[in-house]
Automatic annotation (TrEMBL):
GO function terms (MF aspect): acetate-CoA ligase activity
Protein name (record): Acetyl-coenzyme A synthetase
UniProt-annotated binding residues for ATP: G390, E391, P392, D414, T415, W416, W417, Q418, T419, D503, R518, R529
Stored Pfam families: ACAS_N (PF16177), AMP-binding (PF00501), AMP-binding_C (PF13193)
Enzyme class, first EC level, given as a word: ligase
CC cofactor: Mg(2+)
Protein EC: 6.2.1.1
Length: 650
């Protein structure tokens, strides 16, 4: 199979770091030199500098049993102490850890001292409930401070959390509880979303009726939604009766660096979700290192905000572990970006004086769709760094983000990583790297990646192929919970000793990496490889387009054909005939990329099918494009969307 990517948009804009930014930057070009001179020594230095070890490690990496890595294995630490107690001991207990904002507008400022005390109480309460080292605790909560407290309390006693996103169904929750054999579920009566209370405890009740293992002994319930719930006296406990009354004294024990920290389920290409397993010392080292250097964190003056839900890996690494290990002050917001008004996010940036914002391209594009007036009502001048994660960010969105949100001159870092990698792997370092819109750019110091052909040949210099990680890294997944064979099969069988990421990538003439989407999204049109991301990027670059999704649909003559689904910008949607718009976009792509990329069809639609984490489900669009019955839509944020799109396409 030829995995050459034939066409990629030329993106020639470059942005040098401003001298003012570079002068105060945390990152330093010498990090690259140190890591390339002695990679393991570099990570050992980071682990020692960024974390506090109760027992120092002597061995850095044990790779004697690949693909099962052990980092800093003879060292011992407590993850929660690293995120909390040591900051209080260092005299910054009065620093705000979390500015929490509920969707209805209620708010709380929680200092490091207060957060530490609350986690100690929760740790005592969990111990009281019989939870100990290695036990699994499922967390099914809205974005409230108790979510962070729960994760850290579980970590503090050496147990393992499995956070399940609050939007998941009872079935999904039940299968995750069963797979991990969780003995406790922490939930809330309900949470706020789009101006309404959505029930959580009732979903837990339904899930527990469906579980097969019967592993759950207790359900701990935070009162948040004040909605009516059923109560099982033998099983259910209120947080305010159990945690708030527990002792605030708790001496934390040290655990070995490889003690499991969490399981997080992520969907694979087929079959049941994979329980990605992460451990303690290496994970915390790389999340802390990247959070500090990629986001240029000055913890004494920055206000950081990552908009991800704690149900996703971005919420684990860049809401909980990275920022708290670094003693950062951050914003935590419960609700949706457009409640009660479309400018809510920007109102929060102004209210808290946010300096660093980390979000996803899908959010940026939905604000682009609304237009800049929503943003201009608010003062965003405190912002000094912007980050992006989750999918390729097309150059147009990158530029819009930098200009409209960032005021035109601040760095935008596009960060590539996965649930499996645990922490950021490819990203510019602000103040050091020249920025290139649309490219995630370079592996961070201490990380080695490469591009291979489908047969495993190295792609030398400029060219496209499959992204691999060639050396073990501290925050790498340690396996799939309960399924070592699937771990080997999914990530290591294809190229032996190299980690197969499942993403296509291209290296340009400067050695910068461009992520091209999942390889299952690479199309083959008349024997030419085309990336969905590349054609989407071209479509979005046209002034009438707000959002675009591209799929390869089976075609009798060309093997696959390019089929696009496009949402027009609001101001064009009314005055353009969809037929004309569609023709114009086909012509535009042919002109920008080449005739080979000209979409067979461009459907103008009002919505695109997205998962709850905002990823476009191209599989469903492919079903539509190929005239099939639309497949399983249960992971869509809004399951009715496909009916609406189908009606528009027919
Ligand atoms: C952190 C996260 C991982 C997949 C990954 C890739 C895509 C993430 C990206 C990106 C291009 C970026 N992805 N960041 N693609 N540029 N900056 O999103 O984890 O939910 O496991 O998704 O997301 O395809 O393989 P996860």
């Amino acid at each position: 199979m030829n995995v050459q990517i034939d066409h990629t948009l030329e993106e020639i804009r470059r942005f040098r770091p401003s001298p003012e930014f570079a002068a105060q930057a945390v990152a330093d070009a010498r990090l690259y030199d140190a890591a390339s001179t002695d990679r393991l020594g570099f990570w050992a230095d980071q682990a020692r500098e960024l974390l506090t070890w109760q027992k120092p490690f002597t061995e850095v990496l044990d790779w004697s049993n690949p693909p099962f890595a052990r980092w800093f294995a003879d060292g011992e630490l407590n993850v929660a102490v690293n995120c909390l107690d040591r900051h209080v001991e260092a005299g910054i207990g009065d620093r705000v850890a979390i500015y929490w904002e509920g969707e209805p507008g209620d708010s709380r400022a929680i200092t490091y001292a207060e957060l530490t005390e609350e986690v100690k109480r929760a740790a005592n309460a969990l111990t009281e409930l019989g939870i100990g080292k290695g036990d699994r605790v499922a967390i099914y909560l809205p974005m409230i401070p108790e979510a962070v407290v729960s994760m850290l309390a579980v970590a503090r006693i050496g147990a393992i959390h499995s956070v399940v996103f609050g939007g998941f169904s009872a079935d999904s929750l039940a299968s995750r509880i069963d797979d991990a054999e969780a003995s406790l579920v922490i939930t809330a009566d309900g949470g706020y979303r789009k101006g309404r209370v959505f029930p959580l405890k009732p979903v837990v009740d339904e899930a527990l009726a469906k579980t097969e293992g019967g592993s759950v002994r207790n359900v701990l319930v935070v009162k948040r939604g004040e909605n009516d719930i059923a109560w099982n006296d033998d099983r259910d406990l209120w947080w305010h009766d159990t945690v708030s009354t527990a002792s605030p004294e708790h001496a934390a024990q040290a655990f070995e660096a490889e003690n499991p920290l969490f399981i997080l389920y992520t969907s694979g290409t087929t079959g049941k979700p994979k329980g990605i397993l992460h451990t303690s010392g290496g994970y915390l080292t790389q999340t802390a290192f990247t959070h500090k250097n990629v986001f240029d964190l000055h913890p004494e003056r920055d206000v950081y905000w990552c908009t991800a839900d704690i149900g996703w890996v971005t919420g684990h690494s860049y809401v909980v572990y990275g920022p708290l290990a670094n003693g950062a002050t951050q914003v935590l917001y419960e609700g949706t970006p457009d409640t009660p008004h479309p400018g809510r996010w920007w109102e929060l940036v102004e209210k808290y004086g946010v300096t660093i914002l980390y979000t996803a391209p899908t959010a940026i594009r939905s604000f682009m769709k609304l237009g800049r007036s929503v943003v201009h009502d608010f003062n965003l001048r405190t912002l000094r760094l912007l980050g992006s994660v989750g999918e390729p960010i097309n150059p147009e969105a990158w530029i819009w983000y930098r200009h409209v949100i960032g005021g035109g001159s601040i760095p935008v870092v596009d960060t590539w990583w996965q649930t499996e990698t645990g922490a950021i792997m490819i990203s510019a370092l602000p103040g050091v790297t020249d920025l290139k819109p649309g490219s995630a750019q370079v592996p961070i110091p201490g990380i080695s990646v490469d591009i291979l052909t489908d047969e495993g040949q190295k792609v030398e210099g400029e060219g496209g192929g499959l992204l691999v990680i060639t050396e073990p890294w501290p925050s790498m997944l340690r396996g799939i919970w309960g399924d070592p064979e699937r771990f080997k099969e999914t990530y290591w069988a294809k190229f032996g000793d190299k980690y197969f990421a499942g993403d296509g990538a291209r290296r340009d003439e400067d050695g910068d990496f461009w992520l091209l989407g999942r390889v299952d999204d690479v199309m083959n049109v008349s024997g030419h490889r085309l990336s969905t991301a590349e054609i989407e990027s071209s479509l979005v670059a046209h002034e009438i387009t707000a959002e675009a999704a591209v799929v390869g649909a089976a075609d009798e003559t060309t093997g696959q054909a390019v089929v696009a689904f496009v949402i027009l910008k609001e101001r064009h949607a009314n005055d353009l005939d969809p037929k004309d718009a569609s023709e114009e976009l086909r012509r535009h792509v042919a002109m920008q990329i080449g005739a080979i990329a000209r979409p067979r069809q461009v459907f103008i639609v009002n919505e695109l099918p997205k998962t709850r984490s905002g990823k476009i489900m191209r599989r469903l669009l492919r079903d539509l494009a190929e005239g099939r019955q639309v497949g399983d839509t249960t992971t869509l944020a809004d399951t009715a969307i496909m009916d609406i799109i189908s009606a528009q396409v027919r």
